[in-house]
UniProtKB/TrEMBL annotation:
InterPro entries: PhoX, TAT_signal. Residues 629-648 have a biased composition (Basic and acidic residues). It comes from the Bacteria. PROSITE patterns: TAT. This is dTDP-glucose 4,6-dehydratase. It holds the Pfam family PhoX. Residues 1-22, 629-652 are annotated as: Disordered.
Amino acid sequence: MTQNPPEGLSPAVGAPGEADYSNPSVTTTLGDLIAARLGGLAQAPVGRRDALRGLGALSALAALPAAATGLVGAASKAHAAGSASPSTLTFAEIPHILDATTHVAEGYNAQVLIRWGDPVLPGAPAFDPNALKAADQLKQFGYNNDFLGYFPLERGSNTSTHGLLTINHEYVDRKLMWSGQDPDAIDTQTKEQIDYEMAAHGHSVIEVKKDGDTWSVVPDSRYARRFSALETEFTLSGPAAGHKRLRTSADPTGTKVIGTVNNCAGGVTPWGTVLIAEENFDRYFMGESLPAAEEQNYKRLGIKKPDYGWYRFHPRFDTAREPNEANRFGWMIEIDPYDPTSTPIKRTALGRFKHEGANVIVNHDGRLAVYAGDDERFEFLYKFLTKNKVDLANPANNKHLLDEGTLYVARFKDDGTMAWLPLVHGHGPLTAANGFNSQADVLIETRRAATLLGATPMDRPEDVEPNPVTGSIFVVLTNNTKRKPDQVDAANPRPANEHGHILEIIPPGGKGAQARHEAETATWMIFLLAGNPAKPEDGARYHPATTEAGWLSCPDNIAFDPKGRIWIATDGATKAGIADGIWASDVEGDGRALTRHFFATPTGAEMCGPFLTPDGTTFFCCVQHPGDDKDSTFDKPSTRWPDFKDGMPPRPSVVAITRKGGGEIGQ
């Protein structure tokens, strides 16, 4: 998720800078289509989702009045002056704001639930920012919380006042963790500092309860767990498990891995497990000397010079000393939060790339469809369809469901249609002639296989999530400032796309449960083009009634409430002069693409992990890397959120938002 370091932030925090990308085979299209695409892909007339299907609707658009195209400007001011909003969201919008603290819509409470360093496991010591110890961090809440999932207690229920939270810890900010720390000086860190960084990565499971409007963490819960990069054992499963390219000196079976890194977004399964991503794992490996057998593979993933010095004390992170270790990262992981004795599993059938997350929907035929993005510029969108059906009555019967199925990659066409291309050994170019000797090879080198199939390079596919109400899939594309004018296409219509956009994919078959996610074709349209509509150069497109507070930049993660409305979290909006935060919108009807501003993060932070309880009355989210501004340090941070105490650095935290007096979020 955090691919673009804020201004002044060293790339040594574990996420590649936005200038980096690894795809050497970016396709180009005709530059003379740019103007037509920018006009033709404007948001459809209000409430008519089928009016535009890519370039095929240009003639329909030309016949419409300007206000109906979704262009925001004078139309929005006129609407605001004399008409009621067509949105079903009735909360009072907050203005664009960027300061030291959080802000939420009037009538709501935003409670800090847990912070970096707070206790998770029994016996965890109190947080002391001046004495960071790896042994303590293994029992405490980790750093830079990202994806968040809520699991009702008991399993299988819809309880919205008592449950488990599962939270990713993506990476660390050295300059905000230690006094006087040079974030680039990875060669001078002590082993204790390295081990602390590794302990601060990974995942947490906590038990939470609601009393009135207040949520609290249940202390010493039997469900509480901390997964880390330092010591947690993970199992590899699926077609690539045990393959010789995954075997190491410490694990000659190729089936067991210590640790997980850069855990970004994720998803939840209908049988009560969480899926967590390994995203920018390349930044943890010293790759200045690449093994000949994996050189092409590792270069395609950007493995070269690390942002972390872990290899100095843990040789497995040096490709020269352990040539296959990097192949054991870059997978989706499944964890059972209800079973504190379970071993987390890296599911290789879902492919290996820089996973942003994985979100699921039960297909009309009972099988599971899993949608995922590869979060790097000019990378691809994926779908996985299980071979067997989901057994909701017996959760244990789904234990191996994600090990068998078909992985697909997306190719978008300019006429508003698309194809899902199967990544199957022996299909098309995926043969021994191109170095793919088995399905394991296809999955280990998913990016290269997708490129050979002719997948569409996208503008950083981040969250990809099916809407459980409509059955369509929303694809969040955060930005891509490196796309040139002759590289645009209908699905990525803006060169130098600094603000990002959101696509909607409509499977055939009908709405909701009738949608046919097994189909290898679909239609698509642009939901919105982010940016400031007051700046024509942004090329932004929203509903014409969008207010001055309603525009956003760099959409990242999304969630859907029980009514199917979209809630959008951003990462990188500060480059446009506004705080990252949460915006919400209808996806159907008269309020479609009318985004409304709900929550703002503190300076330097991004917004992560939006997730609602089953009844829609609590909105959980994660404030990641608060204070991560230029020249902000442990000793002189740009904010001390959430504690605002002298000597206490900013602390990534989970926030629980509720309506004062109760009720559904958004009303």
